[in-house]
Amino acid sequence: MSELLVLLPIFLESTIRVATPLVLAALGGLFSERSGVINIALEGKMLAGAFTAAAVTYTVDKRLGMGTASPWIGLLAGMIAGLFIAAIYAVSCIRFKADQVVSGAAINILMLGVPGFLSGALFLSSGSTPQIPKDNLLPQSPWFVAVVILVLVAVIWYVLYKTPFGLRLRSVGENPEAADAAGVSVSRIRYSGVLLAGILAGLGGAYLSIGQSSLFTRNMTAGRGFIALAALIFGKWRPVPTLLACLLFGFTEAGSILMQGVAKLPSGEDIPVQFIHMVPYVLTIVVLAGFIGSSRPPRALGIPYQKEK
Amino acid sequence: MNLCNLWITNPEMTKLARELLFPLIAVVAAFIVGGILILLVGDSPIVAYRLLLGSALSWPDGIGYTLFHATPLIFTGLAVLVGFRCGLFNIGAEGQLYIAAFATAWVGITFANLSPWLLIPFCFLAAILSGAFWAAIPGVLKARFGSHEVINTIMLNFIAVALVSYFVQYHYKVPGDPIMQTSFIGEGAHIARLGKFVPGFPERIPLNVAFLLALLCCLLVYLFLWRTKWGYEIRATGSNPSAAEYGGISIGKQIVLAMAVSGALASMVGINEVLGYRYRYYDGFSDNYGFTGIAVALLGRNHPAGVILAALLFAALQHGGIYVDGFSEHVTKDIVQVLQGIIILFVAGEAFFKWLVGRRFSMQRLRA
Amino acid sequence: MLELRQITKRFGDVLANDNINIVVKTGTIHAIVGENGAGKSTAMRIAYGFYTADSGEILVDGQPREIKSPHDAIALGIGMVHQHFMLVETMTVAENIVLGAEPGTNLALDLRSAGAQIRQLSEEFKLAVNPNEPIEHLSVGQQQRVELLKALYRHARILILDEPTAVLTPLEVEEFFVILRRMREQGKTVIIITHKLSEVLAISDEVTVMRDGKVVGRVQTKDTNAAELARLMVGREVLLRVEKPDAKVGKAELEIRNLSVTDRTGAKRVNDVSFEVRSGEIVGIAGVEGNGQTELIEALAGLIEPERMTGEINFEGKNLHTMSARIRRELGIAHIPEDRHRRGLLLDFSLAENSILGVHYRPPVAALAGGVFLDENAIQRRAAEIIQEFDVRPPNAALPARALSGGNQQKLIIGREYKVNPKLLLVSQPTRGVDIGAIEFIHRQLVALRDDGCAILLVSAELEEVTSLSDRLLIFHDGRIAGEVDPKVATLEEIGLLMTRGH
Questions:
Q1: Does A29 touch chain B (CB under 8 A)?
Q2: Cβ-Cβ contacts under 8 Å, A277 against chain B
């Protein structure tokens, strides 16, 4: 028991560490999906953010000697990269009414290739960026990060429920025809939603490469974009529950690492880490099927808005 | 002029033209964008593309490996196609093929001493049933609870990967082996490499009977979808569920059936991998086959013949990627995935090209 | 003043508005009447910027204005209440009302002051609603009030109301008219789209009558009467009296006892209906659309879950209640659905493939290898027969159904359903969107099938059609049978009044 008490702060810290990129990406996905655009491309946007942030941080330090300012420039660059990818996605889905799932899958495949392609050209490496010195990384303190995340969730909650933009966003995702009839430009709102998702997912990716790690490695998100999507569904497309879902998923992940060798099954074996990994996905399926409360997606999710049908 | 008229007035011909034209435009456009990217990083697109595509055509290695790489892509392409034809988006081929590959290996290991005449059919059965079962789960969830198959198949991919990795790590790994892989399957479960039959084709190239199976599956899928009553019902459901219901077709049944068939097709990647190539289950073997299958199906216009062509193209790129990696200065094999992504983006954005064409026409009209 | 000048609008090959002119004077209540599909809603949706016209112009207060989206219309003081309410169900009344015209700053949504303003408006116009209630908890009547408040909140001077009374009980209609008159007193202009003539006479100052996408009449309400309006709406020149011999009526094929059908929200759409259809007769159902006819036919065809139905449906003595659509087809029930694009056709499939829908799983179509494989020759033969016998043009079985005109699509469906030699035919809106030549052909075919001894249940919103084809005519109103008349002696006016007024 005392063993566990000692572990608790470490446990919390690593929960926050694991959850942070998830929260950022999931909140991004929330903007996009509440406006009615499915976002299976979160993974690709995170990769774009992670790679760009690491590459820019390294380069501005190396070439321009920016030193400790470089991670902040890298962070900004990561957000811009996410924005750029989101812009491609948005034009495809909104302007040209392409299938959102197909376009999202395309973005994900594209972003599996682009970082490797660019790092090969820029750093003559196979898919990773050079190591960034420890001093030139984002602040490591989990408590600092936790505060930032809490503030961000509060801001997003406010934007979603207490501003005209939030009202319009929610209405467009539920009933775009009604929003249109009320004089709201459906496509403008959807562009905003998708682009915000890009910025936040890019930020999440950036935190992964220049916050938690010190370089970009091939496919370093390893499905976090999809876990974020799962958290968004598990959180029923609402900011606070989504945050809690991310923490829960982060907690299971952190637990799976820390509990190795500590907690045992009654039979004396380790709890297989794979089963802990499955938790978020199983929960999402269960919730989506309506076994635990109902998780109803925004009604217009995934449907391009066609004016005259 | 006469030819042109014939082309336009014959609906079959215009349909064929349209079906061929858009994928072709998408591929060419993607290669142009890719070429610009290659130029930007300081290499010559011509040199890079020659490496990429040229190496795929050499005998026997280029062609052998291209066909070998095409095999799983044909299977997953067909899997995605069957889903699409029923109005379903099976993003879960990746998970289905992992489950199936493991099940195949399990049978191959557990019943290693059976005669090949029994063992090989058993392995096939294990693959097909397990893949179909895994894919039927999201089918049932959609038919019964209306939950979206896209999300559920994505989630089931991760669950499949974790589940199989658990079995390998805790139960079927050779003790002491640092690599996450099972022990070997019985020799009786091996299926022949094509080198056995084709003179001058070395047996070291892992191209095996599963490739012929893939071609056979294309034919079978065609017959199933377009020549049987079940295929008719699946396509009717995909085309217009309300009309299908009106015609006495049970939508829910079709969704489950289509997903199961889709999963069975994806499962055959496991046959190629386990019975024809590595003779064991190797954790994480899939090179994104399930996701590339989406690209293959879309580029192939959801037709089995198109799937073969698209799979060959992507396989050639995949094989050529290795040469690009080795022989060009800046460009890496990642260009393959970049091209793939751009191709799907263009295929999805068909409206974009129509818009481009329309704008040109209207500008001409303005000038006139 | 609102003026639509020479507005034309096409949807595909359908001319929804054909060079129409409508003038609405300020401070009046103006009714636009016409049958379903006459183009009333299209014209008003153009005025509201929901659709863009192919040609023509819109003038507001004498000025030509470009209205590209509802946003532009709102800015010009135009408001519209759509037939299907444009409300976000999960949000509150106040949120819906302010949406797109939010009070407060960009950074803070001021719902409190909005609430006060809404309360003030609802008092002024006697439109009581609770601003904090979510829409999904409101009755349709309350939702309509929210729609009105939405327009008033945006300072609409011209209010367009699309079929506003369709969802109201007679008592609510009375209250609603009081509200409309109050609005007129305050100087607002009201445009009301309807096909209920009694209401037009009760509330409007002026009437524009539309038929087949054209404006066919413009009259002062005080100078007209229901009979004249009905005649204008239906039109005289399309009198297609069908020559038919007397019915040789046989045994009852279909017997319906106390059938009720509810929709997914639990509302009763068909309410305790009993009647029978005998072989060799056409029983017609007349009524304004949306009075339960669709649900009745779908319930008979097996397209509604058994849980949503009570009562008995007997076909040749067998209770159909839990039988699937497929089994009903096998028993000899054919169905020509009201919406051929949604229900009747696989638009991307070829004519040949469409010709086997419903029989695709059994011989002679699925005959090879134990009935699994489709017999291409049998399919082609079947398609060729249908194409030839029912004069489907162009006669090319390889074309996708999408490529055909509405009339030819309909002929294909009719041919397909006739091919199974049905004992009972359910047919809904058989000639909607069909050209005159095809209408005549379809009518003759229906009579021929009747004379072969088939029992036919015909639903049509075209009074002309349903009276001339039917041997017996039931009039539907609000999910019930409002009356039965002998179509040989009843006048159009008589039937028209019965279906708009109920009992």
A1: no
A2: 158, 162
Distance from CA of B135 to the nearest CA of C (A): 24
3-state SS, residue A256 = helix
Query: Average pLDDT for residues C95-101, to the nearest whole number?
Result: 93
Q: Edge-to-edge strand order for the sheet containing C318-319?
A: C268-278, C252-262, C309-315, C318-319
Cα separation, C398 vs C351, in Å, equals: 6
What stretches of A124-185 show up as alpha helix (H) in DSSP? 142-162, 164-174, 176-181
Of A165, A171, A307, the CB nearest to C91: A171
List of residues 6+ apart from C387 with CB closer than 8 A? C351, C395, C397, C412, C415
CA A104 to chain centre: 14
d(CA B128, CA B122): 10
Which residues of chain A have a CB within 8 Å of the CB of C154?
Answer: 183
Whether chain A has a CB inside 8 Å of the CB on C112: the answer is no
Burial B8-29 (b: 16+ CB within 10 A, else e): eeeeeeeeeeebeebbebbbeb
CA-nearest residue to C348 within chain B is B239
- As a whole number of angstroms, the distance between CA B266 and CA C105 comes to 54
- Do B152 and A285 make contact, defined as CB atoms within 8 angstroms? yes
**Closest residue to A230, CB basis, from B42, B155, B162:** B155
pLDDT band at C172 (very low <50, low <70, confident <90, very high): confident
Write down the ipTM of this complex: 0.89
Give the tokens for residue A19: 């959850």
Give tens-digit pLDDT for B193-237.
998 988 889 989 999 999 999 999 999 999 999 999 999 999 999
Whether B232 sits inside 8 A of C374 (CB atoms) is yes
3-state percent helix, strand, coil for chain C, nearest multiple of 5: 35, 25, 35
Under 8 Å between Cβ of B138 and B152: yes
CA distance C363 to chain B (A): 11
Q: Is pLDDT of A264 > 70?
A: no
For residue B248, give the nearest of C326, C344, C396 by CB distance: C326
Count of A-B CB contacts under 8 Å: 159
Query: How far is residue C418's CA from residue C15's CA, in Å, rounded to a whole number?
Result: 30
CA C392 remoteness from chain centre: 26
List all chains that touch chain B, counting a touch as 3 or more CB pairs closer than 8 Å: A, C
Higher pLDDT, C178 or A65: C178
pLDDT digits (tens, 9 = 90+) for B229-244: 999 999 999 999 999 9
The whole-angstrom separation of Cα A192 and Cα B21 is 34
Residues of chain C contacting residue B12, judged by C-beta atoms under 8 Å apart: 398
Query: What's the DSSP call for residue B294?
Result: H
Q: Is C357 in the B-facing interface, judged by CB distances under 8 Å?
A: yes
Residues of C in contact with A167 (CB under 8 A): 91, 95, 98-99, 102, 109
Nearest to B239 among C335, C348, C365 (CB): C348
Q: Report pLDDT digits (tens) over B59-107.
A: 888 999 999 999 999 999 999 999 999 999 999 999 999 999 999 999 9
> Dihedral angle at the C-alpha atoms of A100, B309, B78, A86, nearest 10 degrees?
-20
Q: Does B244 touch chain C (CB under 8 A)?
A: yes
Q: Please name the amino acid found at residue C233.
A: M
Q: Quick one: which of C381, C435, C440, C391 has its CA closest to C412?
A: C391
For residue C403, the chain B residue with the least C-alpha distance is B11
Q: At what angle do helices A42-64 and A186-207 cross, to 10 degrees?
A: 60
Please provide the DSSP assignment of C141-189 as one string. HHHHHHHHHHHHHTT-SEEEEESGGGGS-HHHHHHHHHHHHHHHHTT-E
pTM for this predicted structure? 0.88
Query: Quick check: helix, strand or coil at residue A259?
Result: coil
Out of C325, C353, C396, name the one closest to residue B248 (CB).
C325
